[in-house]
Structure formats: structure tokens, C-alpha cells
């Protein structure tokens, strides 16, 4: 079996929702101290719906594929649903990641949570 699934390769080669959002309602940036990879998520919120989401990932192919898939999974969804997205669900949607690459999908979960939290912080100011 190939190390990476077709879906991982597809999202790595053609990542969805790459970039930044000007005047984003929530921004979350997380990193992994061990590998040094960094992921940044931008959210546009309408009511309690994520109307737009973009990411910038300075990291490995699995981190790029995970961010791409994660943005697809939360776009158009309520905030509460996005908060429930787990790295396992992202990895499953990618038809799996090698065990030593699971931490890359954790970045996606954490970046979304950080961006949502930032949105709530901005809102309460
Ligand atoms: Fe660190 Fe993939 S190797 S995020």
C-alpha cells in the first residue's frame, strides 16, 4: 500500500481554501514544537455559520492536506459543529494518515479551535 492515500495526495497537490481573509472574524495560529510546522486559520462568521475559511500552512504535506480537508469540512457549518471536529475525523476523511503523521491532523483541529476561540474573544470586546 502506498504511504499516502489518493485523497491526501489530491489535497496536498490541490489544496482547497488556501490563503488569508482580510478582516477575518477569527484567526487561529498553532504550531508543533517538534517539527516546527505552523498552521494559521482564518474564519468569516455569519450569524453562527462559518461562511468562509482559509488557511496558510507552513509545514509538511500531511499538514497541508489536513488543513485543506478540515476547511472543507467546516465551511458553511455552524461554529458548534466546527468545534466538534476531531483530528481523527479529518484523518478518516483523508482515508487515513500514517501513524507518525497523525500529529499533522492535530494541528488542523487545534487551529480551528484557536480561530473559533479568537472569534469569541473578539466578540466579547
Ligand atoms: Fe509536523 Fe506534519 S510533520 S505537521
Summarize the structure.
With 125 residues, this protein is α+β, with helices and mostly antiparallel strands. It contains five helices and three strands; from the N terminus they run H-E-E-E-H-H-H-H.
Could you explain how this protein is built, in words?
The chain has 125 residues and is α+β, with helices and mostly antiparallel strands. It has one domain: Sufe protein. Chain: A (Alpha-Beta Complex), CATH 3.90.1010.10. Helices cover 45% and strands 20% of the residues. A 3-stranded antiparallel β-sheet has the order 1-2-3. The structure holds FE2/S2 (inorganic) cluster (FES).
The coarse silhouette is: globular
Q: How many beta-strand elements?
A: 3
Q: Could you estimate the helical fraction of the residues in percent?
A: 40-55%
| Widest sheet, order of strands | 1-2-3
- Extract low-pLDDT stretches: none
Question: Which CATH architecture would you pick?
Answer: Alpha-Beta Complex
Mean pLDDT: 97
CATH class: Alpha Beta
- Largest β sheet strand count, sense and barrel closure: 3 strands, antiparallel
Query: Helical segment tally?
Result: 5
Which series of helices and strands comes N to C? Answer: HEEEHHHH
According to CATH, the fold-level topology is Sufe protein. Chain: A
Bound molecules: FE2/S2 (inorganic) cluster
Structural class: alpha+beta
Task: Give the N-terminus to C-terminus distance in angstroms.
Answer: 51 Å
What is this structure's SSE topology?
Elements: H1 6-13, E1 26-31, E2 38-46, E3 49-58, H2 61-74, H3 79-83, H4 87-93, H5 102-123
Antiparallel strand pairs: 1-2, 2-3
Helix pairs in contact: 1-2, 2-4, 2-5, 4-5
This protein binds FE2/S2 (inorganic) cluster.
FE2/S2 (inorganic) cluster is lined by residues 32, 35, 37, 59-60, 62-63, 101, 103-104, 107.
Amino acid at each position: 500500500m502506498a504511504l499516502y492515500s489518493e485523497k491526501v495526495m489530491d489535497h496536498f497537490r490541490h489544496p482547497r481554501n488556501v490563503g488569508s481573509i482580510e478582516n477575518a472574524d477569527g484567526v487561529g495560529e498553532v504550531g508543533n514544537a517538534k517539527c516546527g510546522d505552523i498552521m494559521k486559520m482564518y474564519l468569516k462568521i455569519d450569524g453562527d455559520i462559518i461562511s468562509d475559511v482559509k488557511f496558510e500552512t507552513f509545514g509538511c504535506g500531511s499538514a497541508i492536506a489536513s488543513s485543506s480537508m478540515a476547511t472543507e469540512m467546516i465551511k458553511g457549518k455552524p461554529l458548534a459543529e466546527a468545534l466538534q471536529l476531531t483530528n481523527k475525523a479529518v484523518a478518516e476523511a483523508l482515508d487515513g494518515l500514517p501513524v507518525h503523521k497523525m500529529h499533522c491532523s492535530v494541528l488542523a483541529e487545534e487551529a480551528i479551535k484557536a480561530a473559533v476561540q479568537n472569534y469569541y474573544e473578539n466578540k466579547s470586546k
